[in-house]
Amino acid sequence: xxxxxxxxxxxxxxxxxxxxxxxxxxxxxxxxxxxxxxxxxxxxxxxxxxxxxxxxxxxxxxxxxxxxxxxxxxxxxxxxxxxxxxxxxxxxxxxxxxxxxxxxxxxxxxxxxxxxxxxxxxxxxxxxxxxxxxxxxxxxxxxxxxxxxxxxxxxxxxxxxxxxxxxxxxxxxxxxxxxxxxxxxxxxxxxxxxxxxxxxxxxxxxxxxxxxxxxxxxxxxxxxxxxxxxxxxxxxxxxxxxxxxxxxxxxxxxxxxxxxxxxxxxxxxxxxxxxx
Length: 276
Fold this sequence. Notes:
By secondary structure, this protein is mostly beta strands. It has a single domain (17-268), classed as Jelly Rolls (Sandwich), CATH 2.60.120. Helices cover 3% and strands 45% of the residues. It contains two helices and 23 strands. The chain has helices spanning 24-27, 269-272; strands at 5-6, 18-22, 33-39, 44-48, 52-60, 63-66, 71-75, 89-92, 97-102, 106-114, 122-124, 130-134, 141-147, 157-163, 168-169, 174-175, 188-196, 201-207, 214-220, 224-227, 234-236, 241-249, 258-259. A seven-stranded antiparallel sheet has the order 1-20-17-22-14-13-12, with no helix packed on it. Strands 2-3-10-5-8-11 form a six-stranded antiparallel sheet. The protein is globular, with a radius of gyration of 18 Å. Pfam families: KduI.
C-alpha cells in the first residue's frame, strides 16, 4: 500500500468518533492537517484548535457548534454529500475551544493549517459557498468553493468536488509544489474520498515530472490521499460517483498551478468542440 494513502477506520472508529487523522508530522510536511469524525446522534466532541486555524465542514448530518464567541445551533442540511448541495461549515482561529454535539449521525471534517492570526469565528452558510461546473465531456465535475482564496483565512483553502461515474477529475494533470516560482504556489493537499454506492472506488495517481514520485492508488470510501508534491489526477469507475473534500495550505494562500504539458491540450477549444 502506498505511503500516501490513509485508509479509513470507519469500521473501527476511536471512542471520540475519529476515523482519519493526518498531521504535518504524520504526513512529513509543514502545513495541512485533516481529521474526520463519525459521531452518533447526541454524541459530543470537545476540540482545541491549538496553533491552527480550523474549518469544520459538516459533510453529512446536523450539529450544534459552541465557541467562545458564538453558538451555531441546528446547522447541517444534508444526509449525504451526494445530495450535491453546499454544506454548512464553521471557521475558527487558533487557541479556541470548540464543543460539538451531533443532532443526527454526523460526518465532521476538521481542516487545519498553522496560524497565529485572530480572524473572527464565522459560520459559512450554503449560500456563501461558490458553486461552479468545470470541464467538458468525461472531464466534467461540480465544485463547491467552501473556503477559497477570495474569502478570509490565513492559510487554509477548502473545496469539495463531485465527479460522475466514469469521469476524470483534477485533470488535466496539474501541480502546485514550487516555492520559488512567480506562476506557481506551494500547496500541500489532502483528498478525502466518498463513493456512491459506497462499495465503489477510484484510482488516483500522484507523480512528478522526473518520476522520482510515482504512486497509483485504489481509493475506497473514506480513504484519504496525501499529495505532498506532483500531479494528482483522479479517475472514477463506471457505476460509482465520487466525492472528495480537498484541504490545501502553504506559505502563500493562492491556488496557482502548472499544467502537465502533455495533457494541457484538453483545456483547449479543440477538445471542448467535441462536446458542443
